[in-house]
Amino acid sequence: MKDLWKVNAQQNEGIYLRFSKGVNKELRSAILDFVKWVRQTYIFPVKVIAYIKASQFIINGQTKEQVVASIFLPFDQEVSPYIRLATGDYEELIEELDVFSAKCATLASLAHEITHYYQWIKDLPLDETQADRLARKKVYKYIDYCGGEL
Fold first, then answer.
1. How far apart are CA 27 and CA 63, in angstroms?
2. Dihedrals φ, ψ of 53, to 5°?
C-alpha cells in the first residue's frame, strides 16, 4: 500500500510548531525531535502550524467537544490549516503508563492530525480508523529511527 504521507510536490512549505507557556520541557523536546524527523522525511505542500498547548484539552471548533487534538482544514488549499494539541495530561499519563508510553501517546495524537492533513491534501475523506493506524505506524517508524529511545 502506498504511503499516504508521501506526496509529489513542487514546493515544501513545511510544518511549524508554536508552544504555549507551561508545556512540559521533556515533552516539548520529544515533540521538537519528532517534528524535525517528520520535516526531514515528508513534504508538506501547504504550510501547517501545530499549536502545542499546556491545557488538559481543547474545544473542537465544530463539535464544541473537549478533545486532546484537532485540526482545522479550510476548504481552500491556499489557506493554511492548523493543528492544536493539548499536553496538560502528560504527567497523568506518566503515572498511568510510563514516560515512554506517555510520549508515544502524545506523538501519536500529533501524527493522527498530520494524517488528516494528508487526507485533506489528497482530497480524501477524513478517516479516523486510517488516521489512528497510520499515526501508530509513523510513531513506531520514528522510534525505530531513534533506536528505541525517545
1. 28
2. -105, 150
Contact call for residues 82 and 15 (beta carbons, < 8 A):
no
Closest alpha carbon to 90 in 35, 27, 21: 27
Q: List Cα–Cα distances, 20 to 45, 52, 102, 109, 112, in angstroms.
A: 26, 6, 19, 17, 20
Q: pLDDT digit string (tens) for 110-137?
A: 999 999 999 999 999 999 999 999 999 9
- Nearest CA among 24, 139, 150, 34 for reference residue 88: 24
Judge contact between 45 and 8, C-beta under 8 A: no
Strand partners, 85: 52, 69
The lowest-confidence range among 56-70, 97-111, 112-126 is 56-70
- The model's pTM is 0.94
